[in-house]
Structure formats: structure tokens, C-alpha cells
Input
Amino acid sequence: MKPRLNIVTLGVTNLQKSRDFYQNALGWKPAKASDDKIVFFNHGGIILGLYPLNELAKDAEISPEKSGFSGVTLAINLDSKEAIDKLYKSIIEKGGKPLVEPRDTFWGGYDAYFADPDGQPWEIAWAPFWEFDEQGSLKL
Output
């Protein structure tokens, strides 16, 4: 089997609050395997998991203390500038923290940044040269 990215797990300080944010602000439905200890969102072969920060740190044998930018962002790719404007506005209205308002980028696209309830930065992006397959996955 070839190695591939299957799951991205975010350590969260309040699992229910984070579950509600991703469900309400982004419209993502928790997978059936979710329970009161972990939440999964299925994204066409890649799973986003939410797990209590202290428990995730304990499992990875890493300190749960955070300090500054982690060097990681997550991205949602959309098919138009208008879709970014609409989603960004909805996310902010539903509790997302604005980081960068929608803007034209230096690379010829359009993007915006917001943070989830734990401060995890997310980018919403569009590029005129990107293509998506029939399942909505980005083709590069």
C-alpha cells in the first residue's frame, strides 16, 4: 500500500464547542464513528478528526502547551471568488475568528483566512488554474 494522508486530527480544548463550530459554520456532518470522545468528518477519503488536546498530546507524548504559529494551515478550496466571500461571511457570523479578509493574492488567486475556536488557521482559496474531479477533489 502506498503511503498517503488519511487523517488530520486537531487537538481541541472543548470537543462539543468545536464539533458545533465545524457542523454549523462549515456545514460538515459528523461521521457515524463519532462519539462524545472524538469527532470525525469525512472528506472524500481524508478524515478530519477532533480530539481533546490534552488527550492527543498525551497519546503523542508531546506537551499540550502552545505558543505562537505552529507552521500549519488547513485549506478549503472553492470554485469561485463569490463562494469564498459567502463562506467566509458565514463562518465569521457563526463564531470563526477573522484573520485575513477575502483578497486577491500575489499568485493570481483569491483567498481568506479564519481561525477555529482553538485558533487553528484555515485558508479558503480559489485559483483560476485549479481543476477538481467529479468528487470535488483538487487535481494538481
Observations:
- The radius of gyration is 16 Å.
- The helical segments are 15-25, 53-60, 81-93.
- The chain has a mean pLDDT of 94.
